[in-house]
Design goal:
The chain is built from seven helices and 31 strands. By secondary structure, it is an alpha+beta fold. The protein has three domains: 32-73 and 388-485, Immunoglobulin-like (Sandwich), CATH 2.60.40.2110; 81-99 and 182-385, Rossmann fold, CATH 3.40.50; 102-177, no CATH class. Strands 4, 5, 6, 7, 24, 25 and 29 form a seven-stranded antiparallel sheet that branches. Strands 1, 23, 26, 27, 28 and 31 form a six-stranded antiparallel sheet that branches. A hairpin with a 2-residue loop joins strand 26 (431-435) and strand 27 (438-442). It starts with a strand and ends with a strand.
Length: 486
């Protein structure tokens, strides 16, 4: 039987200090452009479920309040989730990462080239039609209106010559210049992924893990493998197999592709993110799988822009180029084919990979790791994936000197709907109701990652009229109590 736990947010009585000024207007005692109050959150030490509240002033006597539930999940057996780790095994992943001092330079040299692009849609997929006499045509929109433009491919640090891909100029160089050898990029990635598996085991999360490698081609190293037995105990044999697959070297034949077109014609190998996406999708959705309705997550890591594309790795472009476009199109196809129960996370490792940001399910699903911080990045991804609580309800009572000014229909909360799963075909959906100065927020059957609710309050003028000093403490809420199942 599930046990109810109460997390009382007695410390979340947000205090707003107001000051009388000439004309009877009100302002914060320490006025800034956007005053924000952020009291210490309340954390349940047993499972790290956290209830926090912030308030941002939107007018002289009005505040927007946001209540958030987050944390690391519980140890009870929950509906199964599937995670596939898709990892770049191109040659550059053998490069070593060094800890030590950060370069910090703010001086950069632009890496520019002149490209012909479509004046209509902006695509750089332009081809010459004809022989001696002919014309340039956009392969995306078929327009013949093309122009030559100078394009910034990336930036070289003037101090240490570290290269940053993309048009945006870095604010400062984050490259480690010296210090301890932290290992190869591949080793650091493997350590971070093994740590993710260890966290799943420690938390008792009901998960299946799959492992995929990609270089010029992409191959499945391990099919979806459960870390728990049916009774909720750890399947140590499976866990060992998962870790062995993660720590394995590069698979035979991963660079046996034959590139017969494009920039690298006549070569083999490369970075084929499109192939990684294709194989990752096959591993995540195997045929005749009993867990087809599970929540599914793909985590793709690469240390550079793609330069090879198509499933057989036969096409190529300059780094980024059309290989990036092909990967982005493939990701869009995959995301469109899984409208529910699917999230795509991407990680740019040692390089801020522009196309990975476009590939991810949303901007907050893309992460950039410089080096040793990759472990914390994977931990952040895991916290985003895991179910934080089950069947949560929050009762938020306004303070006696403020009024709730947001109508019930205008109170915003996320998520607004929950997807069905194999074990929850009809989950309870989130909802909000208002009774007087009290808000009741039902977070639904489960919270994955985090949940938030936002509303506005306004200071009651009578709170100031009887004040006997220049300032008074005004609690924005009397209490906010979270009750949930674990």
């Amino acid at each position: 039987m599930a046990h109810l736990k109460r997390l009382a947010s007695c410390l979340l009585a947000v205090l707003l200090v107001v000051t009388l000024i000439p004309g009877g207007a009100l302002q914060t005692a320490e006025a800034t452009e956007t005053p924000t109050l952020t009291p210490d959150p309340v954390v349940n030490s047993a499972d790290n479920v956290t209830l926090s509240k912030t308030a941002v002033q939107t007018a002289i006597d009005e505040w927007e309040v946001t209540l958030q539930i987050s944390g690391g999940g519980s140890t009870s057996v929950k509906p199964q989730i599937d995670i596939v780790l898709v990892t770049d095994y191109s040659e550059s992943m053998n490069n070593h990462v060094y800890g030590g001092s950060i370069c910090g330079s703010t001086s950069f040299l632009a890496d520019e080239e002149t490209k012909r692009v479509c004046a209509k849609c902006g695509s750089d997929d332009i081809e010459w039609k004809g022989f001696i006499i002919g014309y340039w045509q956009c392969e995306d929109c078929r327009s013949k209106n093309t122009v030559e433009r100078k394009v910034t491919k990336g930036w070289w640090c003037s101090n240490c010559y570290h290269y940053y891909e993309g048009e945006s100029r870095p604010e400062s160089c984050t490259q480690n210049l010296s210090g301890e050898d932290l290992g190869s990029r591949q080793e650091i990635a493997q350590n971070a992924q093994v740590a993710l598996v260890d966290s799943l085991v420690t938390k008792g999360i009901n998960a299946r893990i799959g492992v995929v490698q990609f270089g010029g081609l992409s191959k499945q190293k391990l099919a979806l493998t459960a870390i728990l037995n049916e009774d909720g105990t750890t399947n140590t044999t499976n866990v060992d197999a998962i870790k062995a697959a993660i720590n394995a070297g590069k698979m035979d034949g991963l660079d046996s592709n034959s590139i017969d077109s494009g920039y690298w014609k006549g070569s083999s190998g490369g970075t084929n993110i499109e192939a990684g996406l294709i194989q990752g999708n096959k591993t995540l959705y195997p045929k005749r799988d009993s867990g087809s309705a599970n929540q599914k997550f793909m985590i793709l890591l690469s240390d550079g822009q793609p330069n090879v594309y198509s499933e057989d790795g036969s096409d190529s472009s300059e780094d980024g180029g059309y290989a990036a476009t092909a990967a982005e199109k493939r990701a869009t196809t995959i995301k469109n084919s899984h409208k529910t129960n699917f999230e795509l996370y991407t990680v740019g490792f040692t390089t801020n990979v522009e196309c990975l940001s476009n590939i991810a399910s949303s901007s907050d699903k893309y992460y950039y790791a410089v080096g040793a911080d990759l472990g914390s990045i994977f931990n952040n991804i895991l916290n985003s994936i895991l179910w934080v609580i089950n069947n949560g309800t929050v009762t938020d009572i306004m303070g006696g000197m403020v009024d709730l000014i947001t109508e019930q229909s205008d109170i915003s909360y996320t998520p607004t709907s929950l997807n069905s799963t194999s074990s929850l075909p009809t989950p309870t959906q989130p909802s909000v109701s208002v009774s007087g100065d009290s808000i009741s927020w039902n977070t639904g059957s489960y919270v994955s990652g985090s949940a938030t609710m936002t509303y506005k309050v306004k200071l009651d003028p009578t709170a100031v009229s009887g004040a006997k000093s220049d300032s008074i403490n005004v609690p924005l809420n009397e209490s906010a109590v979270l009750t949930y199942q674990n």
